Amino acid sequence: MAAVKIVLMILMVTLVMQSRLVFSQNCSANLGALTTCAAYVLPGGPQGPPSAECCGALRAVDRTCLCSTVDIINRIPRDCNLPVVTCV
């Protein structure tokens, strides 16, 4: 019975790791498509509405992917022993 529990535990861990890998790959691919929005997020970029391509790329990105990316971006200064960026 203990061997069955160990095998089940290994299968569960493998399943969780695989699902994270797939999410990471999909997230990275979708974020890569956002290069069409690059000009709109840089100072001095276009002030008007984003292009249809930018909007389509953003629409394709999962909200969890976007939020995870923002969390990572906000964590980087802290991990580099720099002050947290605050915008007013």
Automatic annotation (TrEMBL):
GO cellular component labels: extracellular region
This protein's record includes keyword Signal: yes
Ranges for domain Bifunctional inhibitor/plant lipid transfer protein/seed storage helical: 27-87
Predominant cellular place of this UniProt entry's protein: secreted
SMART domains tied to this protein: AAI
Localization per Swiss-Prot or TrEMBL: Secreted
Pfam name, any one: LTP_2
Protein name from the UniProt record: Protein LIM3-like
InterPro entries reported for this sequence: Bifun_inhib/LTP/seed_sf, Bifunc_inhib/LTP/seed_store
Keywords: Secreted, Signal
PANTHER family: PROTEIN YY1
Residues passing through the membrane, by range: none
Signal sequence, start to end: 1-24
Keyword Secreted carried by entry: yes
Entry similarity comment: Belongs to the A9/FIL1 family.
